[in-house]
Amino acid sequence: MTNPQTILKKYFGYHEFRPGQAEVIQKVLTGENVLAVMPTGAGKSLCYQVPALVNPGVTLVISPLISLMKDQIDSLKQNGIEAAALNSTTPQEEVNPILRQAYEGKIKLLYLTPERLAMDYFRYQLNFLDVSLVAVDEAHCISQWGHDFRPAYRQILEGINSLRSKPNILALTATATPAVQEDIANQLNISRNNFVITSFARPNLSFKVVNSPKDTNKYIYDYINAHNDEAGIVYTNTRKKVDDLTRYLKKRGVSVANYHGGMANDERTKVQDDFQFDRVQVIVATNAFGMGIDKSNVRFVIHANSTKNIEAYYQEAGRAGRDGAPCEAVMIFHPGDLATYRWFIDQSEADDQYKKIQYDKLHAITEYANTQSCLQQFIVRYFGQDTPACGKCSNCLDQRKLRDISVEAKSIINMVYEFDGRFGKSIVAQAVTGSKNKRMKEIGADQLEHYGSLKLPRKEAESMINFMLANGYLETVGEQYPVVRVTNLGWDVLDGKKKVLRRGEPKIDEVKANLSPDAKLFNALKAKRLILAKEQGVPAFMIFNDHTLHEMAKIKP
Ligand code: ADP
Ligand code: MG
Ligand code: ZN
Q1: Which pLDDT belongs to residue 87?
Q2: Which part of the chain is the Helicase C-terminal domain (predicted)?
């Protein structure tokens, strides 16, 4: 048997294994079923490609995307390794010669879509092959709890079990929470002892969250401008936004190209190549871009809109810095995006359990965008591991001192309490800021003691409620129409046992003082030097400084 180390050098030209690779390969070669969880770019492919060359016979690789297979096969061929791919649409007259070559030992790796493996006649044909290993790439697709569920993945085990040669299984994924790991293991008969999980942390990646900037396009343009000559990807969530943002950036002289699923194949290939070979600096894309792209020097990944879940975010952000050099991942967060995603889940035909999973994933994104603690730590913990604070994400760097917002928090908690868990956060925000919306009268909110008790703009109140939800002072219950409730931590705040501290300052913003354009309040604030300016001739607008919003709550107008 050839030694894995020799194969690594001879075929791939690498001198040493990366973390996790040797352990996975060693377990695979002893015939165990193995689950490998390693971050994007860690080198998972090698974990089955090396055994494929060590073992006699052929290795089957189940992979969800034809484009992914094609890229892998091209690069294997460049290394002098014969490989081929079959999907469910490959005509029978092309299937037979490939199977023959595999039978004769001329093909060592055979890539299949799960749909192909599910075909009866094909399974029958596979029985003529000596299959030594089945690698299941992107194995999270097998789980409903994952972010990319693919029903045909459910039939993989049945397909493998029908093989006469009884191969062992290697499942691989970059993004599996503990629940998903469990699910994969159960479905593919993998024992806990055979989990190889390398650290989820990406030490060269700095994370940053930007909450609803005034002008997202301008923010992105300024960012790119400050990162001259660095390769970057900007993700947004619709084809139209991709095209619009590309046009916007191009007009301002950025070297940029667009990429989405609505473009012709050759056009997409051209964009991909231009990026790969540094002929274009920035790609604006939907999430169709990236799978199978192996560009090592991507220095930044900006999400102009949040993803629907942390898994997808980490996968996409993880395309930065595969070379190990410093790089940055920026998420621009707009709460409205999540409302849209939520609506799509509401409208979908999926069953309730599946919907609940998707709602929970959306919730985790809101938490990520609102957490005060280390962003890298948040993500790593989401995947069930731990890591020290990174010291360089936007939260770690945010050294501004914590603000005591207990007074405001109490107004909100009291409002929620008065509502007795009957309403969602938007109604709470309206009521506590004293909205004149007729819905307030309908539900009797205007009769409640704490109606209008929070002298803050609606937006700031919403942001505060999100913060309190993310940090456990409040909780939501229910999926489709989640209502807000007070938690034990929230009661502690009301009882004065706990303070609510928040980092940073409310945005110095022009704030509609519909809350109290009242002259007495204005003068009181002015006396306390809490107002920076009053917009000329528009008394309904005041510009606050950082203490105003806090102090306003204390002053009874
Ligand atoms: P993953 O599937 O985990 O995202 P890939 O298998 O696509 O990652 O590998 C990412 C890159 O790392 C590829 O360019 C691969 O050639 C390279 N690579 C893998 N293993 C090693 C190694 N031991 N030494 C150096 N480079 C490696
Ligand atoms: Mg991979
Ligand atoms: Zn950090």
Answers
A1: 85
A2: 219-363
In ligand 1, the atom with minimum distance to the C-alpha of 40 is: 4
Cα–Cα dist 363/368, whole Å: 9
Cβ within 8 Å of residue 272, ≥6 positions away? 259, 289, 293
Cα-Cα-Cα-Cα torsion 214, 220, 221, 225, nearest 10 degrees, comes to 130
Query: Sign of the CA dihedral 374, 466, 215, 512?
Result: negative
Closest CA to 309 of 345, 346, 353: 345
Contact 165, 130 (CB under 8 A): yes
How many CB atoms are located within 10 Å of the residue 78 CB? 8
Q: How many helices (H) and strands (E) does the chain have?
A: 24, 20
Half-sphere exposure of 216 (CA within 13 A, CB side): 21
Pick from 46, 41, 39: nearest CA to 61 = 46
The C-alpha atoms of residue 197 and residue 213 are separated, in whole angstroms, by 37
- What is the rounded CA–CA span in Å between residue 305 and residue 362? 13
For 231-270, the DSSP string reads EEEEE-SSHHHHHHHHHHHHHTT--EEEE-TTS-HHHHHH
Paired strand residues for 284? 234, 258
Say if residues 196 and 24 touch (Cβ distance below 8 Å). Answer: yes
Do 176 and 139 contact (CB within 8 A), yes or no?
Answer: yes
* Residues 454-480 as b or e (16 or more Cβ within 10 Å = b): bbbbbbbbbbbbbbbbbbebbbbeebe
- Residue of 464, 457, 463 whose CA lies nearest to 516: 457
Nearest ligand to residue 393 Cα: 3
ipTM value of the model?
Answer: 0.98
- Helix (H) / strand (E) element for 527: namely helix 519-527
**Whole-number Cα distances in Å, 420 to 374, 432, 448, 492:** 33, 14, 12, 17
Whether 49 and 81 have beta carbons less than 8 Å apart is answered as yes
b/e sequence 40-53, b meaning 16+ C-beta within 10 Å: bbbbbbbbbbbbbb
Ligand 1 centroid distance, CA of 50 (Å): 12
Note the ligand closest to the C-alpha atom of 136.
2
Ligand 1 surroundings by CB, under 6 angstroms: 14, 17-18, 21, 38, 40-46, 174, 294
Q: Whose CA is nearest to atom 13 of ligand 1?
A: 43
| Per-residue pLDDT at 540 | 32
Which residues of the chain carry a pLDDT beneath 50? 507-517, 529, 531-547, 556-557
Q: Count Cα atoms within 13 angstroms, Cβ side, for 272.
A: 18
Whole-structure pTM over 0.90, yes or no? no
Q: Which residues of 381-398 are buried (b: 16+ CB within 10 A; e: fewer)?
A: ebbebebeebebbbbbee
